[in-house]
User: What shape does this take?
Amino acid sequence: MGLQAIDQERLTNYMQRAEERAAYFLGYPIARDFDYSDLYPLLKLPLNNIGDPLVESTYDLNSRSLEQEVLAFFADLFRAPADNWWGYVTNGGSEGNLYGLYVARELYPNGIVYYSEATHYSVQKNIQLLNLRSIVIRTDERGEMDYSDLAQMLHMHRDQPAIIFANIGTTMTEAKDDLVEIKSRLRMAAIKNYYIHCDAALAGVYSALLNLKPGFDFGHGADSLAISGHKFIGSPIPCGLVLVKRNYKERIGKAIPYIGTVDTTITGSRNGHSPVFLWYAIKKLGREGLQRRATESLTMATYLESQLLDRGIQAWRNPSAITVVFPEPSKHLRQKWQLATENGCSHVVCMPGVEKTQLDEFLKDMQEDARVSGEMVESLSS
Ligand SMILES: *Cc1c(COP(=O)(O)O)cnc(C)c1O
Assistant: This one.
């Protein structure tokens, strides 16, 4: 028996509305160009990767073997030390960041977390959950960490281990903190006990694919890093991935007889479908296909920035960023295009799936919006 007519109608309306809203989705960093229809039969199965991805479980209805290949792909991309890495597919970037900080705390229980004021909102909460001390570092006007402020704070607390939380693409302006600068400030303060976690949720994957500067991977000095899977790669279900140096995390995780594996992850049950989506994307596109998508995103961002400037709108981008920042337009436009807005600025993130025709429609709206608000200012002042 199916749904009652009234519920069926409600569902049909909802599904139609979701499709409509997907056509006006420019303000969040979410790829939309995926097609996972080959995997739909798996939606009939309760896949669950409960516990450690590298240790078999009695819960055998899982996708661990594919998850391991996904982890290996990213360990390679981010140059994790060959026999000394570990990780798992998370529910998203936030969980990966929490895990990185958790490992850092187990290593340095009295460490101080240094993170910039442009850091993702979830991080402060996670620092509270972990009961860690922290210091917020200023940023420049484009969202990058102010290294002289960092140097000053490190100097004042040089008797404590430092846990650096670096942004590889901030949420609002896609600014990247530079590990070379950070490490030089740690050296200047003569702090030997430190840990660097990179929040690469937003920009990590395409930055690594295109070898963009500044580098942030394990070879550049990261001790752990987190990415989101539903952002650049694309997934119908939010997901992510965390990688840490294996020797650091060895103090975490107990053997649990009930699941027949070790409890090394933050949550118990873990989504068994999202690793399959990631696996499918990696295999289907390959590194070259992923690189091509990254280059296309950059092309779209360059186009949008220059077109906005041509229309007299003060748009800007950080170097090699796919996020275009501009003064906030009217509320109507922000709602129509689902534009994230903060402190008078909005942005469009040119993730894969953003098309030129869509940008042209958006540009038309922006131009009309600027004209109307210009007229309003004129009529107010006359
Ligand atoms: C999106 C994002 C996060 C959070 O990731 P989720 O996948 O939404 O949990 C953290 N940091 C930055 C910079 C992000 O852009």
Observations:
- Residues 92-94, 120, 122, 167, 169-171, 199, 201-202, 228, 238, 240 surround pyridoxal-5'-phosphate (CB under 6 Å).
- Residues 328 and 345 are 5 Å apart (CA to CA).
